[in-house]
Automatic annotation (TrEMBL):
Entries under InterPro entries matching the protein: CC-FHA_domain
Coiled-coil blocks: 4-45, 73-128
Taxonomic superkingdom: Eukaryota
Keyword Coiled coil part of the UniProt annotation: yes
Organism: Syrrhaptes paradoxus (Pallas's sandgrouse)
Name of the protein: CCD27 protein
Assigned keywords, A-Z: Coiled coil
Length: 196
């Protein structure tokens, strides 16, 4: 946004210079036309005075004025050419600045769209994280209840001592495996004795 503001200020300055130079150009063209009119009038006057020998001194003065006017016209034309060149350069600069402004606006719009998309993705991820945490808490609660029931079933059998402290999963598995092995041995013993 700062770059766009800077480019717009440059653009306004260049356009102001362009308007000023165009105004100077119009003034120079007006002066050039006036000088040409003066030159034509002096030429007509010179032709009229040439016919009268009485005005030879005046003719010389008019000739000098004509030379001076021609020199002024030449200088004005040269200055006008330079002004036209400067106008073209300023117009090119203005066009370039306008293109840079458009490019900057496009990039800013593109960045805004990317930021909005990232924001949307972040909101979606936050929602999914919340859902995952709720599901994890539910699963953890069910697992704890299931584990508690397993421990209760394991140590409620005859001959089992109730645990005195918090049991690890490995200790629970070992107790269950011990009960299973004892039952398998008892089953084998009954089978050998022929008891169904």
């Amino acid at each position: 946004t700062g770059a766009i503001s800077s480019l717009q200020r440059q653009l306004e300055i260049q356009e102001s210079q362009l308007r000023r130079i165009k105004s100077e150009n119009e003034m120079l063209q007006k002066q050039l036309r006036e000088r040409e009119n003066q030159l034509g009038a002096m030429s007509a006057k010179f032709c009229s005075l040439r016919e009268e020998r009485k005005h030879e001194d005046m003719m010389a003065t008019i000739e000098k004025e004509n030379c001076s006017l021609r020199q002024v016209v030449t200088e004005q034309e040269s200055k006008l050419t330079e002004q036209n060149k400067l106008i073209r350069e300023l117009q090119e600069t203005v066009s370039q600045l306008q293109a840079e402004v458009l490019s900057s606006r496009y990039h800013i719009h593109k960045q805004q769209r990317a930021q909005e998309e990232i924001q949307s993705q972040a909101e979606t991820l936050q929602h999914r994280e919340l859902q995952t945490r709720v599901a994890l808490e539910c699963i953890s609660s069910r697992f704890e209840r299931y584990r508690s029931k397993i421990i209760q079933a394991t140590f409620s059998t005859l001959g089992s001592k109730p645990p005195q402290a918090e049991l690890t999963d490995e200790e629970v598995l070992e107790a269950m495996q011990k009960i299973i092995n004892e039952r398998m041995e008892f089953h084998q013993m009954l089978k050998q004795k022929g008891v169904k």
